[in-house]
């Protein structure tokens, strides 16, 4: 397939919306003009790439209505790619177009329009971010790490409970009061890390895996004791 095959379907699509369309104007693959509106520029490529996005950004020095266009793919991978590409294009103020050729007549789909983008903040996500930040004791992770498990506030609470149970079995209600861990009961019941074992109704003890965890996370344990 060639990039030039994208031109005719997109030209036809824009002409259907009242634009006059011409190719290769000042190095732009496609330029469309309608009345006194901002000219529309469309850059054509066979795949989504940084080079294509950079080309689109360069064209924004001429107009705000810049689109990048690619052939449509198939399957879940394509759907995922488009979803991510739309987010990125919106951030950059670019429009995204795909052309599907699996039917007798190619079809054009505009995934997002060009124009300034104001990201919408999700208040709950921001609150969760700050809550996790405040609950963390110290900084025991390294940005980009993959081998050692991330030390979350939840894991720190589990380690607090493990430290207490290392002295002997205990009840969730007592641990909640003494340690200040509000979710002590749910942490023990869920036992996501396999550290705890219920020895009788409402009483838990530390497993060998929990003792091992206290050694593995000795630096965190020390910080929690301070």
Commentary on this structure:
It is built from nine helices and eight strands. With 226 residues, the protein is of the alpha/beta class. The chain folds into two domains: 4-112, Trna Endonuclease, Chain: A, domain 1; 123-225, Winged helix-like DNA-binding domain superfamily/Winged helix DNA-binding domain (Arc Repressor Mutant, subunit A), CATH 1.10.10.10. The strands form two sheets. It has a six-stranded mixed β-sheet with strand order 1-2-3-4-5-6, with helices on both faces. The protein is elongated. 25% of the residues are buried. The mean pLDDT is 90.
Task: Describe the secondary-structure layout.
Elements lengths: L3 H12 L4 E6 L2 E6 L6 E5 L5 H10 L5 E7 L3 H18 L2 E6 L6 E6 L10 H13 L17 H13 L6 H8 L4 H7 L5 E5 L2 E4 L1 H9 L1 H8 L1
Parallel strand pairs: 3-4, 4-5
Antiparallel strand pairs: 1-2, 2-3, 5-6, 7-8
